[in-house]
Amino acid sequence: MYQIEVYGKASGKIAAVLKVQKYDLDKNLMDFLREKKLPIASSCAGKMQCKKCIINGFLLSCSVTLKEFLRNSSQPIDAQGDSNKFLITIDYL
Ligand code: FES
């Protein structure tokens, strides 16, 4: 279905390659990333107050569903034009 590469800016490495299934689409993005064992920071439990869960430099991962993220993402990563691949960058990973 969809694939998300998670790039850690601090390490300069791909931290994870995640498969997104249809049943994941309505999940909160932060919750999904945490399910996949990625240490997404938070001190407000997803109430959009702490701003620690930022991905891609500006997006609060607690504020969107996977479906919204994929629909609005402007970061296709595949030069061959595979629109099912997406990139998430996390500064502290
Ligand atoms: S978890 Fe606090 S702003 Fe997203």
In short:
The chain is built from two helices and five strands, in the order E-E-H-E-E-H-E. The chain is α+β, with helices and mostly antiparallel strands and 93 residues long. The chain has a single domain (2-90), classed as Ubiquitin-like (UB roll), CATH 3.10.20.
Summarize the structure in words.
This protein has one domain: Ubiquitin-like (UB roll) (Roll). Helix content is 15%, strand content 27%. It has 2 helices and 5 strands. It has a 3-stranded mixed β-sheet with strand order 2-1-5, with no helix packed on it. Strands 3-4 form a two-stranded antiparallel ribbon. The protein starts with a strand and ends with a strand. FE2/S2 (inorganic) cluster binds at residues 42, 44, 46, 48-53, 60, 62. The site of FE2/S2 (inorganic) cluster has 11 residues, from loops.
Layout: helices, strands, pairs:
Blueprint: E1 2-8, E2 13-20, H1 29-35, E3 54-55, E4 59-60, H2 66-72, E5 85-90
Parallel strand pairs: 1-5
Antiparallel strand pairs: 1-2, 3-4
**Series of H and E elements:** EEHEEHE
State the helical fraction.
10-25%
Q: How many strands, what sense, and barrel or not for the largest sheet?
A: 3 strands, mixed
CATH domain class name: Alpha Beta
For the secondary structure, the number of strands is 5
Q: Can you tell me the overall shape?
A: globular
Strand arrangement in the largest pleated sheet: 2-1-5
Please give the CATH architecture.
Answer: Roll
- What ligand molecules are bound, each kind once? FE2/S2 (inorganic) cluster
